[in-house]
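Handout, tutorial session.
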Amino acid sequence: MRRSLPCVLRAHGEEARWAYFVTWIEDSGRWFADASGKPGRAHGLIRVVTAQHEAAEKLQKRPRLDPATGALNRASLGEHINELLEGARRRSTETFVVLLAAIENLFTLNRTYGYDAADQIVEMVSRLRREMRGSDVIARYAGNKFGLVLAGCDAEQMQVAARRFIEAIAAAPFETDAGPVYASLRIGGVIAPRHGRSAQILFQHAEDAVDLARQAGAPLRGVRAFAQRIRCEVAGAPHG
């Protein structure tokens, strides 16, 4: 419920001026009938929720997309994951996968060849999207990392999907001003809500899995699935 409350300001005898402040309130209550059955009295509670409303408005106005790629940004990815976790709490059998895909040599190539990597990143997002289902979500997690959310996936399906993404990036070189350049991915994956009940915890575990995938060693392109006690590796074929 929205109410506008007037406030009178006076300064050293000057003519009164009116200023209006918008206050958001939340009310709840019930009425009780009198002997005739008509409303006789009411009990209720009114709570000022202006701060919560303003915070929600700021959240809505915050940019949701990464300007370079058009994918979701990291904050929006976290919000999407938390929404899925809430749904999973209501439907205990529902699971989904969160993948972090790190471009191994993006910035090394940038320094070596001296070209702007932005176009290559955009092309990588395009390749990954071509391998995604309509319900899947991709986001720019960090400079050289993408986050992918795959709904309704289990551990086996996660490994199949991760291999598909790896192969999509390795399938052909990326054209640059310095000539064709190959790139490779390391992928860490977690299954929610099994491996975490918040986006932050899932991100932490996925980061751990990416670090373990890096330890697979070149020229293999590793996929690591995080587990609380066991981490299993699925390695891609050697780079062609």
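The second record follows below. Compare its token runs with those of the first.
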Amino acid sequence: MRILIKFFLLILIFLSTKVSYGQRVDFDKEKENFSFEDDFTYYKGSPFSGTIVEHYENRQVKVKKSYSEGKLDGDWVEYLENGQVQKIGFFKEGKEDGVWEMYFENGQLESKGSYKEGKEDGVWELYFENGQLKYKGSFKEGKNDGVWERYSDKGQLHEKSSFKEGKNDGVWEWYYKNGQLELKGSYKEGKKDGVFELYHENGQLKYKGSYKEGKEDGVWEWYFENGKIINTITYRNGVEIN
């Protein structure tokens, strides 16, 4: 008999825990029962577990956010006043984690990317409202890392750049609206390093020269649109020497 009583008590404890964790609270009606300290949320004096729901004045849901033991943990969904989803993502132990998506009012995807322990990590994509890709690139531990591309709202590539640990590193390319290359150069640890070339819109070279650790170094040449040379200057460590 005692074993049976203990069994039922364990079931009651388990069910009460599940109900507490799964509670859904209307924040607008119970603001006075909530308190906040650092990154923790308390409900009636205890760390909150469950879902908080906030509303617009018309009672349309504004945001749903999940908690566990006082910390954001689980789904996060934001809505526009018309009921359209605006942002959706996930928290783990108080930090953004996994895929997050944002949407325009017309329902078109605005951005998509991943977090790891609260920092951007992996491929991110941003879009124009017409659905065309605007930016695409990668993060590593919250910093730009790898190749990034920027496009026009018509799908034309405007810029291609490289990063390493948040700094410019590698080849950069800029393009005119007609698709013609405008500028090409390279960076190393955030500084211009190597050959840079700028072009006229007709494709003819406009100038060409080299950098070393962010300073002009070596022979620089300027050209007219017809390809004829205008001027030549030699630099050493950023200083003109002729």
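Points raised in discussion: Residues 1-21 have pLDDT under 50 and may be disordered.
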